[in-house]
């Protein structure tokens, strides 16, 4: 084992290093304790217990150093212990940990809101308020849209994911594991098709137009546009399998919303904060949402989420109608300021593009000779492969390939409505050599007929 480090962060040796099998003996012991203390509802992607993390590696209790292609589900875009985040949070924790912004406010909350108002798409007047999780941001966006429009219906899309609370699991498309057994669900939620190019029945070319026409037809006939408070969509479906809606689909939906007084909400919880090679994924097609929800990458892992939107919509809610004890906690706000500085000063938007430009050609080259790879897609550092039984579009289980990667010290995540998508979300600060090494491990793991 190389020299012990007492801190995480980018100064951790940036290397893959396996000193035991994965998971090692110490992790297995801890996992046994987890199984008796924590219910099985809380799953585990890779049962190695972490001591340090930073740059592009996660170090475990057995001394293994794994390559991280997950970023804690698109959270540690700036790394797991980014110096500007660490410094600000350390200072803040010694100054004060909490007052409750609704009781006695502090400047960092306001600064975060000002920055989000400026950074999110559109130069109209905006407001922002802060909450604790992605789900809470989405719930609040719906509350605001209902209040401002006086309407109730919410339209969501096939393959969408928006959270696990009662309303947000209702908004989520997939039953198992998110909804199964947890009903009854919230009322006034309606689901329409998503322009999913790889699986569109008539092929990818007419996908945008046909899917938009179907969605608009369903809204108009089944709900009535005048009853719809909000249309809610992820600009790239995350948990659903990194589905980029066919180009042209989102603009058509936005246009329909504008024409009918419907609030267009972009859920950028997974796609936000430089992840896709833009600060926000909506920028790719020039979409300006009425409300945008953010979380995950906003604060490097400290619990923070935000609702940002048109001032006239957010100002509609009566005084005291929004809030929560911890929303915009001072530690999380300092972390967010550290994250935003890091993205800007370390040029992480460009860095995300570079990651995409490194990964996509290699994955497409794999696709050429490996028929298990049905589709390669994504933008920036949000990249996926959709796996199929060779010669068909039958889903091939991604968990099997993920397990083979894990054994080799590469942490990858799965996704997809059919569980057949491997998704790659490396920290934007991952060094190139780890990116390349990870892709080589992946290439071998995808050769399912051979031993890795
Ligand atoms: N909206 C687009 O991706 C969270 C889910 C992890 P929270 N995605 C990761 C899991 O299995 O629970 C997510 C998202 C989009 C909303 C959310 C919800 O964000 O911070 O997990 O509540």
Short précis:
This protein has 452 residues and is of the alpha/beta class. The chain has helices at residues 25-37, 71-74, 83-95, 107-119, 134-149, 166-171, 207-223, 249-259, 311-314, 330-345, 348-369, 398-407, 432-445; strands spanning 50-54, 57-60, 65-68, 126-131, 153-157, 189-192, 228-233, 263-267, 291-294, 305-310, 373-379, 382-387, 410-411, 413-415, 421-424.
Description of the molecule:
This protein has 452 residues and is an alpha/beta fold. The chain has two domains: 3-81 and 347-447, Aspartate Aminotransferase, domain 1, CATH 3.90.1150; 85-345, Type I PLP-dependent aspartate aminotransferase-like (Major domain) (Aspartate Aminotransferase, domain 2, 3-Layer(aba) Sandwich). 35% of the residues lie in helices and 16% in strands. The protein is built from 13 helices and 15 strands. A hairpin with a 2-residue loop joins strand 1 and strand 2 (57-60). Helix 3 runs antiparallel to helix 10. It is globular, with a radius of gyration of 22 Å. Mean pLDDT is 97; it is low at 1-5. The site of ligand PLZ has 16 residues, from helix 5.
Instruction: Report the end-to-end length measured between terminal Cα atoms.
Output: 24 Å
Separate helix tally: 13
Bound molecules: ligand PLZ
- Shape call: globular
Q: What's the name of the CATH homologous superfamily of the largest domain?
A: Type I PLP-dependent aspartate aminotransferase-like (Major domain)
Strand content: 15-25%
Structurally, the number of domains stands at: 2
Order of helices and strands: HEEEHHHEHEHEHEHEEEHHHEEHEEEH
Helix content: 25-40%
The oligomerization state is single chain
The whole-angstrom Rg is 22 Å
- What fold name goes in the CATH topology slot of the largest domain? Aspartate Aminotransferase, domain 2
Any guess at the CATH architecture of the largest domain?
3-Layer(aba) Sandwich
